[in-house]
Amino acid sequence: MSLDVPTALLERAEAGEVSDAEFIDCVRTSLPYAYEVVSRVAEELRSGTAEFADNEIPPPDETARGQLLRALASDAIRGGLERHFGVKLAFQNCHRVAAFPLSAVGGETYTRFTSTRAQLLNQSPELRNC
């Protein structure tokens, strides 16, 4: 299970739509490591001058690794985080998450980062089982 959904939120979802704010709060509390990584790269992007910001620090344990994988493998969670932080996320392996400005999508840097070549070059024996 990806998220720990409070009963009240589940009831609201059963009755109709829930707000992005409610959903993101559920993500934040259910997947705190993943939320922190995305929050950090989004903040680094906003406060810096680089074309993108990324996380190259491996998760501290398998629980954290699982949170990151669940967050970025789910279209709904990933999309919610992108809307919340106003960025486009890119994911290369078990921990390399990057935040790009929305305007970068389709551009040279984003395309290079998300290319099959970049994926292959970002592999190493240490990452084979992540």
List key phrases describing it:
7 helices; three-stranded antiparallel beta sheet; 130 residues; globular; mainly alpha
Task: Describe the protein in words.
Pfam families: KH_NucS_shadow. This protein is mostly helical. It has one domain (7-127). Helices cover 55% and strands 10% of the residues. It has helices at 7-15, 20-30, 32-47, 62-73, 75-85, 108-113, 116-121, and strands at residues 53-55, 87-91, 97-101. A 3-stranded antiparallel beta sheet has the order 1-3-2. Strand 2 (87-91) and strand 3 (97-101) form a beta hairpin. Helix 2 (20-30) packs across helix 3, helix 2 packs across helix 5 (75-85) and helix 3 crosses helix 4. The longest helix is centred in the first third of the chain and has 16 residues, at 32-47.
In short:
Helices cover 55% and strands 10% of the residues. The protein is built from seven helices and three strands.
How are the elements arranged and paired?
Elements lengths: L6 H9 L4 H11 L1 H16 L5 E3 L6 H12 L1 H11 L1 E5 L5 E5 L6 H6 L2 H6 L9
Antiparallel strand pairs: 1-3, 2-3
Helix pairs in contact: 2-3, 2-5, 3-4
Q: Are there runs of 5+ residues with pLDDT below 50, and where? A: none
Count of individual beta strands: 3
Q: Tell me about the biggest sheet?
A: 3 strands, antiparallel
Query: Average pLDDT value?
Result: 89
Our estimate of the beta-strand percent is 5-15%
Q: Treating each run of at least 4 consecutive H or I residues as one helix, how many helices?
A: 7
Question: What is the 3D shape?
Answer: globular
Query: What Rg do the Cα atoms give?
Result: 15 Å
The ordered H/E elements are HHHEHHEEHH
**Share of helix, binned:** 40-55%
Main sheet: strand order? 1-3-2
Helix/sheet category: mainly alpha
Distance between the termini: 19 Å
Q: How many structural units, i.e. domains?
A: 1
